[in-house]
Amino acid sequence: MDSRRLPPKSSRTRSSNDGGPLHHHQKRLAPSVDNRSPSPTPKASDALPLPLYLTNAIFFTLFFSVAYYLLHRWRDKIRDSTPLHVVTFPEIAAIVSLMASFIYLLGFFGIDFVQSFITRPSHDAWDLEDTDNPNCLINEDHRLVTCPPPANVPPISKVPNPEPIITPLASVEDEEIVKSVTEGTLPSYSLESKLGDCKRAAVIRREALQRTTGRSLEGLPIQGFDYDSILGQCCEMPVGYVQIPVGIAGPLLLNGMEYMVPMATTEGCLVASTNRGCKAMYASGGATSVVLADGMTRAPVVRFETAKRASELKLFLEDPDNFDTLSIVFNRSSRFARLQGIKCSMAGKNLYMRFKCSTGDAMGMNMVSKGVQNVLDFLQNDFHDMEVIGISGNFCSDKKPAAVNWIEGRGKSVVCEAIIRDEIVKKVLKTSVASLVELNMLKNLAGSAVAGALGGFNAHASNIVSAIFIATGQDPAQNIESSHCITMMEAVNNGKDLHISVTMPSIEVGTVGGGTQLASQSACLNLLGVKGASKESPGSNSRLLATIVAGSVLAGELSLMAAIAQGQLVKSHMKYNRSSKDISKAAS
């Protein structure tokens, strides 16, 4: 492109008599006209044959008239079954007029590339433009195409990449390993197997991460943790561990026994509120809890060529005469796994088989999965055309809110109840029985129904469930179905006392396996008296833990509902859930 700089204003307005440079299209003027005032700067709209407002009105009218005409023509063609691509000469003219008016209107409303073709100025318009910027460029069509910033304005600097953070390591060998990880020649995930030292691998991985990202991990502790205990079980590629404070609520008086409940949480007021609920329950004689069912589930999905063939397998699995055979095959997977039942559901030619079994003191997901795999292998002897799509078909249903868990249960199904005396309601909870009953109906029952809740007919069961799960090494993601809970309240003993209960159909807990074997979590289980597996009665420890969860939820529901009924929720959170620390100083 033939681009050249637009000369400064002074050089463009000098006459030939001054000896200044002239543009190629400028003419020398006689001295008699040198004193005339400069002509006004022409506008782009001066090129139009009509005033701008008349031109706009014409094109507006043309656009809508032609559009109206074409719409009517196309409607008639559709009614007469005439192909739309067959057009007449008036229709071609109308389409061309529509496009022309549309392009004009786009230019009128500021579309630059269209406007430049409609209202492009002439040579003299650019050359007589009154601009003081000598850095504007003009192309061969005498149009402004760019305007670089003045030389004295510094360019905008980009945000620099953060400098690598380098922490001296114990040896030159470790430095070489970090260099290999940062360069990508040594995979970070293979450090444990390469070095044979889990803690050293975590330190090297952490340093490589800091150098790669340029971000410091200061504040994330790495010392004081047994990294060997999580290898191949709890966490891959560790670089440290997160500290979560653990508070104690209690004593929780449940089934005549006292328990101090550990709760790992960062939500202020939660432990204090649960503790108040425990106090009210203790003063009223405690709570009673019953385990209604105990069975973990897994539901594979298989596919057949026809729905008829899928239904044949469904009938076979649900036939009581075949249950003993299937149980023998299933129970081979573990000395604790015991098949309890199989329920099937079809979707076309796809079959979902929900296996339910007891799992001892383990939460049992791996145990039931192995048993299901044994049964699938056995079934393919008679059902050769069965295609296994997945070991889990979401009919289980794990870590997702599902009606099947709410109705059928999963894990431990528990109900817990207590009667809180009227004087305790007034003295400890600072409210009345009538207020609690009314609030429970309008909030936990009617309000949850209005919200379309699934298993969420409670005030905050998941708060307590999550805190206990984290403290005792459970799977936090299973808080979803484990928090399914319906809270019921009613006045008893001639309206004087409060009967409160929580029904939780799918509490998924274990006292062995997973995170339960970590030192901190194991200590919390030991505090509750449910550490490890029960040798006398397999499964009793995990069932007891489930009842403690339900009893703690009952205490939390009681206290929070009292706070809401009394209008103290916001005040208590302002007192216990707000730091008095100077945040600005902490940030600096």
From TrEMBL:
InterPro entries, per the entry: HMG_CoA_Rdtase (IPR002202), HMG_CoA_Rdtase_cat_sf (IPR023074), HMG_CoA_Rdtase_CS (IPR023076), HMG_CoA_Rdtase_eu_arc (IPR004554), HMG_CoA_Rdtase_N (IPR023282), HMG_CoA_Rdtase_NAD(P)-bd_sf (IPR009023), HMG_CoA_Rdtase_sub-bd_dom_sf (IPR009029)
Biological process annotations from GO: coenzyme A metabolic process; isoprenoid biosynthetic process; sterol biosynthetic process
Primary enzyme class: oxidoreductase
Keyword Glycoprotein: yes
Known pathway: Metabolic intermediate biosynthesis; (R)-mevalonate biosynthesis; (R)-mevalonate from acetyl-CoA: step 3/3
Catalytic activity entry: (R)-mevalonate + 2 NADP(+) + CoA = (3S)-3-hydroxy-3-methylglutaryl-CoA + 2 NADPH + 2 H(+)
UniProt KW keywords: Endoplasmic reticulum, Glycoprotein, Isoprene biosynthesis, Membrane, Mitochondrion, NADP, Oxidoreductase, Plastid, Transmembrane, Transmembrane helix
Disordered: annotated span: 1-42
Subcellular localization(s) per the UniProt record: Endoplasmic reticulum membrane; Mitochondrion membrane; Plastid membrane
The protein's Enzyme Commission number: 1.1.1.34
Bilayer topology: Multi-pass membrane protein
Pfam families: HMG-CoA_red
PROSITE patterns per UniProt: HMG_COA_REDUCTASE_1, HMG_COA_REDUCTASE_2, HMG_COA_REDUCTASE_4
SUPFAM superfamilies: NAD-binding domain of HMG-CoA reductase, Substrate-binding domain of HMG-CoA reductase
Keyword Membrane: yes
Membrane spanning stretches: 50-71, 92-111
A GO molecular-function descriptor: hydroxymethylglutaryl-CoA reductase (NADPH) activity
Chief location category: endoplasmic reticulum
Entry's family note: Belongs to the HMG-CoA reductase family.
Protein name: 3-hydroxy-3-methylglutaryl coenzyme A reductase
Organism, scientific name: Populus euphratica
